[in-house]
Specification:
By secondary structure, this protein is an alpha+beta fold. Helix content is about 30%, strand content about 15%. It is extended and about 90 Å long.
Amino acid sequence: MNDIPPRRGRPPMNREVIEGEVGNEFNSASNRPAMREEDPRARAAKRAAELRENRDDSYDGTDEYYIDPSVIPDGWSYEWKRKFVLNQEDISHTMALKRAGWEEVPTSRHPEMMAVGSQEPFIIRKGMILMERPLEITNEARAKLQREAREAVRGKEEQLNAAAPGQFERQNKSDSLVKVKKSFEAIPIPD
């Protein structure tokens, strides 16, 4: 009885086979591709000509999600909303949008916004879907968001101005020592 446990892993290869492979097959100059002797400038010029020939000048920097306000029906607001993430439909987000009053805009209303012959029932571009909701509801939602933002700023100002018990007041001659800037400025755009 042999009590030696079997070895684990790949069995060792025959030394002759290893040397033969390295020497004959893998290291052979005949198996390597020939080095290119082409001039790099000539190669660059050739590639530039190919690129110019196949160039797609259709993108001119315009906003592909722009919606002409004149096509939006009176009393309605249009917005692009997320429909797909990594080619998977985001159903929970879509349901949240529906609860907020958003509905898909049918392709039949604006066929010019889709490709000719498209069978899509709704207007979709690059994972985004065009949705509509009554303008009145959209304005109410925007006003609510602005109120919440103002309340957040007001709360932080109160928190900054409040002095803990036993500390000096944060005022100098009835003016607050805490200054929160609330203006908007243009950001310089580098050339």
